[in-house]
Design a protein that fits this description.
The protein is mostly beta strands and 239 residues long. It folds into two domains: 3-110, Immunoglobulin-like (Sandwich); 117-238, Immunoglobulins (Immunoglobulin-like, Sandwich). The protein has one helix spanning 220-238; strands at residues 3-5, 10-16, 21-23, 33-40, 45-51, 54-56, 67-69, 76-78, 88-95, 99-110, 117-126, 129-137, 144-150, 155-161, 166-174, 181-188, 191-194, 204-205. The strands form four sheets. Strands 1, 2, 4, 5, 6, 9 and 10 form a seven-stranded mixed beta sheet that branches. A hairpin with a 4-residue loop joins strand 14 (155-161) and strand 15. Bound molecules: 2-acetamido-2-deoxy-beta-D-glucopyranose (6 copies). Residues 41, 43, 45 line the site of one 2-acetamido-2-deoxy-beta-D-glucopyranose.
Length: 239
Protein backbone atom coordinates (compact mmCIF):
# COMPACT_ATOMS: atom_id res chain seq x y z
CA UNK A 1 0.00 0.00 0.00
CA UNK A 2 1.09 3.57 -0.66
CA UNK A 3 0.59 6.33 1.83
CA UNK A 4 0.33 10.05 1.08
CA UNK A 5 0.67 12.76 3.62
CA UNK A 6 -0.02 16.09 2.03
CA UNK A 7 0.86 19.23 3.81
CA UNK A 8 -1.05 22.22 2.56
CA UNK A 9 0.56 24.67 4.92
CA UNK A 10 2.65 27.41 3.45
CA UNK A 11 5.48 28.12 5.84
CA UNK A 12 6.73 31.67 5.98
CA UNK A 13 10.42 32.24 6.46
CA UNK A 14 12.47 35.37 6.28
CA UNK A 15 16.19 35.84 5.96
CA UNK A 16 18.61 38.71 5.64
CA UNK A 17 20.35 39.79 2.47
CA UNK A 18 23.87 38.28 2.31
CA UNK A 19 23.20 35.83 5.14
CA UNK A 20 22.36 32.12 5.15
CA UNK A 21 18.97 30.54 5.76
CA UNK A 22 17.97 26.93 6.27
CA UNK A 23 14.62 25.91 4.86
CA UNK A 24 13.24 22.92 6.78
CA UNK A 25 11.90 20.00 4.78
CA UNK A 26 9.40 19.20 7.52
CA UNK A 27 10.40 15.51 7.43
CA UNK A 28 9.69 13.43 10.51
CA UNK A 29 13.10 12.93 12.22
CA UNK A 30 12.45 9.17 12.34
CA UNK A 31 12.23 9.00 8.55
CA UNK A 32 15.02 7.59 6.48
CA UNK A 33 14.90 9.61 3.27
CA UNK A 34 15.64 8.07 -0.09
CA UNK A 35 14.46 10.94 -2.26
CA UNK A 36 14.54 14.70 -1.71
CA UNK A 37 13.55 17.18 -4.42
CA UNK A 38 13.64 20.93 -3.83
CA UNK A 39 12.08 22.94 -6.64
CA UNK A 40 10.93 26.43 -7.55
CA UNK A 41 8.42 28.03 -9.93
CA UNK A 42 5.12 26.55 -11.01
CA UNK A 43 6.95 24.35 -13.55
CA UNK A 44 8.87 22.71 -10.64
CA UNK A 45 12.36 23.66 -11.77
CA UNK A 46 14.76 21.55 -9.68
CA UNK A 47 17.36 23.32 -7.57
CA UNK A 48 18.55 20.55 -5.23
CA UNK A 49 17.97 16.81 -5.35
CA UNK A 50 18.94 13.60 -3.59
CA UNK A 51 18.11 10.50 -5.57
CA UNK A 52 19.66 7.02 -5.78
CA UNK A 53 22.18 8.07 -3.14
CA UNK A 54 23.39 11.04 -5.18
CA UNK A 55 23.03 14.59 -3.96
CA UNK A 56 23.12 17.45 -6.48
CA UNK A 57 22.75 21.16 -5.81
CA UNK A 58 23.91 22.44 -9.20
CA UNK A 59 20.67 22.35 -11.18
CA UNK A 60 19.92 26.03 -11.53
CA UNK A 61 22.46 28.85 -12.20
CA UNK A 62 20.87 31.37 -9.78
CA UNK A 63 21.88 29.12 -6.84
CA UNK A 64 25.22 27.93 -8.16
CA UNK A 65 27.59 27.24 -5.25
CA UNK A 66 25.09 28.59 -2.73
CA UNK A 67 23.14 25.50 -1.68
CA UNK A 68 23.76 22.80 0.92
CA UNK A 69 21.38 19.87 1.13
CA UNK A 70 21.24 17.87 4.33
CA UNK A 71 20.38 14.39 3.11
CA UNK A 72 19.46 13.23 6.64
CA UNK A 73 16.92 15.91 7.47
CA UNK A 74 16.12 17.05 3.93
CA UNK A 75 16.73 20.65 4.99
CA UNK A 76 18.10 23.03 2.38
CA UNK A 77 20.49 25.84 3.29
CA UNK A 78 20.75 28.82 0.94
CA UNK A 79 23.97 30.75 1.44
CA UNK A 80 24.50 34.52 0.97
CA UNK A 81 20.87 35.33 0.23
CA UNK A 82 20.07 37.48 -2.79
CA UNK A 83 16.99 39.60 -3.34
CA UNK A 84 15.57 37.32 -6.03
CA UNK A 85 15.79 34.28 -3.71
CA UNK A 86 12.58 35.62 -2.18
CA UNK A 87 10.21 33.15 -3.84
CA UNK A 88 8.28 30.03 -3.01
CA UNK A 89 10.12 26.73 -2.50
CA UNK A 90 8.64 23.26 -2.77
CA UNK A 91 10.12 20.10 -1.31
CA UNK A 92 9.00 16.56 -2.08
CA UNK A 93 10.21 13.70 0.07
CA UNK A 94 10.10 9.93 -0.10
CA UNK A 95 11.22 7.62 2.70
CA UNK A 96 12.29 3.98 2.84
CA UNK A 97 8.73 2.95 3.82
CA UNK A 98 7.46 4.49 0.56
CA UNK A 99 5.79 7.36 2.38
CA UNK A 100 5.69 10.74 0.64
CA UNK A 101 5.52 14.23 2.02
CA UNK A 102 5.49 17.65 0.49
CA UNK A 103 6.07 21.09 1.90
CA UNK A 104 5.95 24.65 0.59
CA UNK A 105 7.91 27.55 2.01
CA UNK A 106 7.56 31.19 1.10
CA UNK A 107 10.82 33.02 1.66
CA UNK A 108 11.15 36.76 2.12
CA UNK A 109 14.52 38.48 2.08
CA UNK A 110 15.00 41.57 4.21
CA UNK A 111 17.73 44.16 4.19
CA UNK A 112 19.44 44.44 7.57
CA UNK A 113 19.28 47.88 9.11
CA UNK A 114 22.37 49.88 8.30
CA UNK A 115 24.37 51.65 10.96
CA UNK A 116 23.30 55.30 11.26
CA UNK A 117 26.03 57.93 11.27
CA UNK A 118 26.52 61.07 13.31
CA UNK A 119 27.84 64.34 11.88
CA UNK A 120 28.92 67.31 13.90
CA UNK A 121 27.11 70.48 12.83
CA UNK A 122 28.70 72.88 15.25
CA UNK A 123 30.29 73.06 18.66
CA UNK A 124 30.77 76.41 20.28
CA UNK A 125 32.46 76.96 23.55
CA UNK A 126 31.30 79.63 25.94
CA UNK A 127 32.43 80.39 29.45
CA UNK A 128 30.14 77.97 31.20
CA UNK A 129 30.26 75.10 28.75
CA UNK A 130 29.75 74.10 25.16
CA UNK A 131 26.81 74.13 22.83
CA UNK A 132 26.87 71.18 20.45
CA UNK A 133 24.62 70.44 17.51
CA UNK A 134 24.81 66.98 15.94
CA UNK A 135 22.84 65.31 13.15
CA UNK A 136 22.19 61.62 12.76
CA UNK A 137 21.21 60.09 9.46
CA UNK A 138 20.42 56.65 8.14
CA UNK A 139 20.48 55.29 4.60
CA UNK A 140 17.38 53.24 5.46
CA UNK A 141 13.91 54.61 4.83
CA UNK A 142 11.15 54.52 7.42
CA UNK A 143 13.34 54.09 10.48
CA UNK A 144 12.96 55.72 13.90
CA UNK A 145 16.07 57.53 15.08
CA UNK A 146 16.65 58.21 18.76
CA UNK A 147 19.55 59.43 20.86
CA UNK A 148 21.45 58.16 23.83
CA UNK A 149 23.52 60.80 25.60
CA UNK A 150 26.07 60.34 28.37
CA UNK A 151 26.28 61.67 31.00
CA UNK A 152 22.52 61.90 31.45
CA UNK A 153 22.88 65.33 33.08
CA UNK A 154 23.67 66.92 29.67
CA UNK A 155 20.78 69.11 28.60
CA UNK A 156 19.32 68.16 25.22
CA UNK A 157 16.58 68.94 22.77
CA UNK A 158 16.00 66.67 19.85
CA UNK A 159 14.07 66.86 16.64
CA UNK A 160 13.63 64.10 14.12
CA UNK A 161 12.66 64.29 10.47
CA UNK A 162 11.17 60.91 9.58
CA UNK A 163 10.76 62.00 5.94
CA UNK A 164 14.51 61.99 5.27
CA UNK A 165 15.60 59.56 8.04
CA UNK A 166 17.55 62.17 9.97
CA UNK A 167 17.48 63.62 13.48
CA UNK A 168 19.10 66.63 15.11
CA UNK A 169 20.23 66.98 18.68
CA UNK A 170 21.08 70.21 20.47
CA UNK A 171 23.07 69.71 23.64
CA UNK A 172 24.54 71.99 26.24
CA UNK A 173 27.51 70.42 27.96
CA UNK A 174 28.50 72.36 31.03
CA UNK A 175 32.15 72.70 32.11
CA UNK A 176 31.25 70.54 35.11
CA UNK A 177 30.39 67.64 32.76
CA UNK A 178 33.45 68.37 30.57
CA UNK A 179 32.42 65.93 27.78
CA UNK A 180 29.38 64.35 26.18
CA UNK A 181 29.09 61.05 24.42
CA UNK A 182 26.39 60.79 21.73
CA UNK A 183 25.00 57.62 20.22
CA UNK A 184 22.19 57.46 17.68
CA UNK A 185 19.93 54.41 17.47
CA UNK A 186 18.10 53.46 14.31
CA UNK A 187 15.12 51.15 14.77
CA UNK A 188 12.48 49.52 12.66
CA UNK A 189 9.93 47.13 14.10
CA UNK A 190 11.87 44.85 16.47
CA UNK A 191 15.29 45.50 14.92
CA UNK A 192 17.69 48.22 16.02
CA UNK A 193 21.28 49.25 15.39
CA UNK A 194 23.46 51.89 17.05
CA UNK A 195 25.84 54.35 15.46
CA UNK A 196 29.46 54.59 16.53
CA UNK A 197 29.52 56.80 19.64
CA UNK A 198 31.02 60.24 19.15
CA UNK A 199 32.59 62.45 21.80
CA UNK A 200 33.09 65.82 20.10
CA UNK A 201 35.59 68.44 21.21
CA UNK A 202 34.44 71.98 21.61
CA UNK A 203 35.76 73.79 18.55
CA UNK A 204 35.07 77.47 18.06
CA UNK A 205 35.22 79.85 21.01
CA UNK A 206 33.02 82.85 21.53
CA UNK A 207 34.24 85.69 23.64
CA UNK A 208 31.83 87.19 26.11
CA UNK A 209 29.78 85.95 28.94
CA UNK A 210 26.58 84.09 29.12
CA UNK A 211 24.08 86.32 30.83
CA UNK A 212 22.24 83.51 32.54
CA UNK A 213 22.56 79.76 32.54
CA UNK A 214 19.73 78.71 34.75
CA UNK A 215 18.87 75.75 32.59
CA UNK A 216 16.05 73.58 33.66
CA UNK A 217 14.93 70.35 32.06
CA UNK A 218 11.30 71.45 31.88
CA UNK A 219 12.04 74.56 29.86
CA UNK A 220 14.93 73.24 27.78
CA UNK A 221 13.71 74.57 24.48
CA UNK A 222 13.08 78.13 25.64
CA UNK A 223 16.33 78.30 27.58
CA UNK A 224 18.44 77.09 24.69
CA UNK A 225 16.92 79.71 22.43
CA UNK A 226 17.68 82.43 24.97
CA UNK A 227 21.18 80.99 25.26
CA UNK A 228 21.71 81.37 21.52
CA UNK A 229 20.53 84.99 21.69
CA UNK A 230 22.94 85.70 24.48
CA UNK A 231 25.87 84.39 22.42
CA UNK A 232 24.96 86.60 19.48
CA UNK A 233 24.75 89.74 21.57
CA UNK A 234 28.10 89.08 23.24
CA UNK A 235 29.78 88.63 19.83
CA UNK A 236 28.59 92.18 18.98
CA UNK A 237 30.17 93.47 22.18
CA UNK A 238 33.50 91.86 21.24
CA UNK A 239 34.14 94.07 18.23
C1 LIG B 1 10.33 27.32 -15.64
O1 LIG B 1 9.90 28.65 -15.35
C2 LIG B 1 10.95 29.58 -15.21
C3 LIG B 1 10.37 30.92 -14.77
O2 LIG B 1 9.11 31.13 -15.29
C4 LIG B 1 11.74 29.68 -16.52
O3 LIG B 1 12.81 30.58 -16.36
C5 LIG B 1 12.27 28.30 -16.89
O4 LIG B 1 12.92 28.35 -18.13
C6 LIG B 1 11.15 27.28 -16.93
N1 LIG B 1 11.73 25.97 -17.12
C7 LIG B 1 11.24 25.09 -18.01
C8 LIG B 1 11.96 23.79 -18.04
O5 LIG B 1 10.29 25.35 -18.70
C1 LIG C 1 21.67 17.21 9.09
O1 LIG C 1 20.49 17.14 9.87
C2 LIG C 1 20.61 16.29 11.00
C3 LIG C 1 19.23 16.16 11.63
O2 LIG C 1 18.65 17.41 11.83
C4 LIG C 1 21.63 16.88 11.94
O3 LIG C 1 21.78 16.06 13.08
C5 LIG C 1 22.96 16.99 11.22
O4 LIG C 1 23.91 17.64 12.03
C6 LIG C 1 22.80 17.78 9.92
N1 LIG C 1 24.04 17.70 9.18
C7 LIG C 1 24.71 18.79 8.80
C8 LIG C 1 25.94 18.57 8.00
O5 LIG C 1 24.30 19.92 9.09
C1 LIG D 1 14.05 63.00 22.27
O1 LIG D 1 12.70 63.41 22.12
C2 LIG D 1 11.76 62.47 22.57
C3 LIG D 1 10.37 63.00 22.25
O2 LIG D 1 10.31 64.40 22.32
C4 LIG D 1 11.97 62.19 24.06
O3 LIG D 1 11.04 61.21 24.51
C5 LIG D 1 13.38 61.69 24.28
O4 LIG D 1 13.63 61.51 25.66
C6 LIG D 1 14.39 62.67 23.72
N1 LIG D 1 15.73 62.09 23.85
C7 LIG D 1 16.76 62.80 24.29
C8 LIG D 1 18.09 62.09 24.35
O5 LIG D 1 16.69 63.98 24.62
C1 LIG E 1 30.44 56.35 24.78
O1 LIG E 1 29.30 55.52 24.95
C2 LIG E 1 29.46 54.21 24.41
C3 LIG E 1 28.15 53.49 24.53
O2 LIG E 1 27.53 53.73 25.76
C4 LIG E 1 30.61 53.51 25.14
O3 LIG E 1 30.80 52.23 24.57
C5 LIG E 1 31.88 54.34 24.96
O4 LIG E 1 32.93 53.74 25.71
C6 LIG E 1 31.65 55.77 25.46
N1 LIG E 1 32.83 56.57 25.16
C7 LIG E 1 33.34 57.44 26.01
C8 LIG E 1 34.54 58.20 25.55
O5 LIG E 1 32.87 57.61 27.12
C1 LIG F 1 8.45 54.56 15.18
O1 LIG F 1 7.99 54.94 16.47
C2 LIG F 1 6.59 55.10 16.56
C3 LIG F 1 6.26 55.63 17.94
O2 LIG F 1 6.97 54.95 18.94
C4 LIG F 1 5.90 53.77 16.27
O3 LIG F 1 4.50 53.91 16.31
C5 LIG F 1 6.31 53.29 14.88
O4 LIG F 1 5.75 52.02 14.63
C6 LIG F 1 7.82 53.21 14.78
N1 LIG F 1 8.18 52.90 13.41
C7 LIG F 1 9.00 51.89 13.09
C8 LIG F 1 9.28 51.70 11.64
O5 LIG F 1 9.54 51.18 13.95
C1 LIG G 1 18.34 85.60 30.73
O1 LIG G 1 18.84 86.83 30.22
C2 LIG G 1 17.97 87.44 29.29
C3 LIG G 1 18.71 88.69 28.74
O2 LIG G 1 19.14 89.52 29.78
C4 LIG G 1 16.68 87.84 30.01
O3 LIG G 1 15.79 88.51 29.10
C5 LIG G 1 16.05 86.58 30.55
O4 LIG G 1 14.88 86.89 31.30
C6 LIG G 1 17.00 85.83 31.46
N1 LIG G 1 16.40 84.54 31.80
C7 LIG G 1 16.40 84.07 33.06
C8 LIG G 1 15.76 82.73 33.24
O5 LIG G 1 16.88 84.67 33.99
Amino acid sequence: CKCYILSLLLDLFSGYLGEDITLPSGADPSWSLIKIVWSIFTNNTWIATYRNGISTTEHFPQYSGRLTLNTTSGDLTIHSLKENDAIEYTVDLLNTDDEEKGNKIKLTVKQKLQQPSIKMVTSTSVESGCLMVVTCSSLDKGVNLSWSVEPVSVLTINKSNPSDSSAQLFAFVSTRESFANFTCISSRDTESVSSKPVTPKCESKICGKLLNVTLSLTYKRKILFSFLLCVQSSREQCK
